[in-house]
Write a structure and sequence with these properties.
single chain; Aminopeptidase
Length: about 170
């Protein structure tokens, strides 16, 4: 069934709200399980999952230097994208996630576009991000949205691909 953007909304959300916490848990569970299943043939240990979720609450995604966005599909929380300023001109895109049941309906491009707008409003002229090799859908999305693969820009042990995109001023701005 074709879906229109009218079913999607993307709005700022406090990083520590119950909605944000539930989406962070879903995101982290999915990417962690995917990595462990690929590399060790098992799911994430529940204690490890809880430690990692607690260790990364997302406070860097709070204004004035960051923003967490929540996408809702037909009114229900469906995904997130976060932006944080690394320096006055550079923002990092992080926590891009959609629940599996809402993928393929245009929400990812809307989320990333809203994150780019948020980065511009923070003063950024460039967006960077990293991802893993096994997250092929993410890499395809970023390429489709104009991100170019670039050299390593951080020391994240799980990052295998790094991307950048120039953020041109918003139309009319």
């Amino acid at each position: 069934m074709p879906t229109t953007a009218a079913l999607w909304t993307v709005t700022p959300e406090p990083y520590d709200s119950p909605v944000a916490a539930a989406l962070w848990r879903a995101y982290y569970t999915e990417v962690s399980d995917r990595w462990y299943l690929l590399h060790e043939g098992r799911r994430t240990d529940p204690a490890e999952l809880e430690r990692e979720i607690a260790a990364k609450p997302g406070d860097e995604l709070a204004p004035p230097r960051g923003q967490l966005l929540v996408a809702r599909y037909d009114g229900e929380p469906a995904g997130t994208a976060g932006v944080r300023l690394l320096d006055p001109a550079t923002a990092e895109l992080t926590r891009v996630f959609l629940h599996a049941g809402t993928r393929g309906r245009g929400g990812a491009a809307l989320l990333v576009g809203a994150a780019e707008d948020a980065a511009r409003s923070l003063g950024a002229t460039r967006m960077i991000l990293d991802t893993r090799g096994d997250l092929v859908e993410a890499r395809a999305l970023y390429a489709r949205l104009g991100y170019e693969e670039t050299a390593r820009h951080n020391d994240d042990p799980y990052a295998e691909h790094w991307f950048t995109k120039s953020l041109r001023p918003a139309r009319g701005g």
